[in-house]
Amino acid sequence: MNTTPISTLNVTATTASDLSRSRQDQLQLDATTRWGAAGDRALVLGGGGSTGNAWLIGVIAGLFDAGLDVTSADLTVGTSAGSTAAAQIAGATPTELFAAILDAPAQQPSGPVGSGPRRAPGRPVVNQLERIKKIIASAEDVADMRRRLGAAALEMDSASDGSWSVQWLTTVAARLPSQHWPERRVLITAVDARTGEPAVFDRHSGVGLADAIAASCSSGLPYRIGDKRYLDGGYRANAENADLAAGYERVLVLSPFGGRSLQPQEWGMHLATQLDELRNGGSRVAAIYPESRSEHMFGPNGMDLSLRPPAARAGYEQGAALAGKLAEFWN
């Protein structure tokens, strides 16, 4: 397998396979089994915090302004920050979304400014990363990891009065051009905090769009939907969950984290493994990662709002540069 990051694309051409037709509990269903026959083109938008969302919008806007519209994909998979982007591109043009990021009031860095272009992350982000690393190190596999993460999150939530979910929903809803699920196929990932089971929401799940995105972006405390609690969709498998695009002829993956994962390689959850599986299943795959000069804006600095405009611009430049190479693949 040869998946090269930065500004080069690797596309493997084969024929598409069909998805399973089985149906299960709609809130807990892994959507690879929900749909009947797969479609032509799938767009996978990975997680990556606030700067990751800005980069995703930038890439899509750069492609769009250069003549390549990927927002018309037959399927869009959104995880965490990518779930917000999935809803945003369904309700506004990429050009409008990109301009809104650049026109937003300037924000102060979330932490003290370090040497060079790097900024030190805020302590909550650092503490959370350390907590997740410890849980992963103690877990036997990805299912055990999800159960442990859920138990830890529920323990923190037990001391709260439940108001966080209400506040978070308000914040998330304000970011969306529309509160309604788009007619196109959009899948939003999450994890059931109590059982550790994967959850995938769509317009048929009986969950509102803003609720689904709030769950997918609930990195710390569990998000409440009715009597259920949900964790960030990045804990389902990885920050991209590209396996949900199985059976689609062409799959374009945008990964703010550059395909990196905190999970052990032997768990088989890394993006590279998922891309291999997609190709083995008959899909043509292309992946776009941030350029190395932009990497300081993601990961620990992903919640630094002052980095959103430069992250969006970096993505835009990549998208505009790659539009020509992607056109034959996508169209």
Folded structure, characterized:
This protein has nine helices and eight strands. The chain has 331 residues and is an alpha/beta fold. Strands 1, 2, 3, 4, 5, 6, 7 and 8 form an eight-stranded mixed β-sheet that branches. A hairpin with a 5-residue loop joins β3 and β4 (198-201). Residues 1-8, 10-29 and 111-123 have low confidence and may be disordered.
Question: How do the helices and strands line up, and which of them pair or pack?
Answer:
Blueprint lengths: L40 E5 L3 H17 L9 E4 L2 H11 L2 H10 L19 H16 L3 H16 L5 H12 L10 E8 L5 E4 L7 H8 L6 E3 L2 E5 L17 E5 L16 H10 L3 E5 L19 H23 L1
Parallel strand pairs: 1-2, 1-7, 2-3, 7-8
Antiparallel strand pairs: 3-4, 3-6, 5-6
Helix pairs in contact: 1-2, 1-3, 1-9, 2-7, 4-5, 6-7
The percent range for helix content is 25-40%
Main pleated-sheet profile? 8 strands, mixed
Q: Report the C-alpha radius of gyration, rounded.
A: 18 Å
Helices and strands, in order, run as EHEHHHHHEEHEEEHEH
Count of β-strands: 8
Percent range for β-strand residues: 5-15%
Defining key terms:
331 residues; alpha/beta; eight-stranded mixed sheet; globular; disordered N terminus
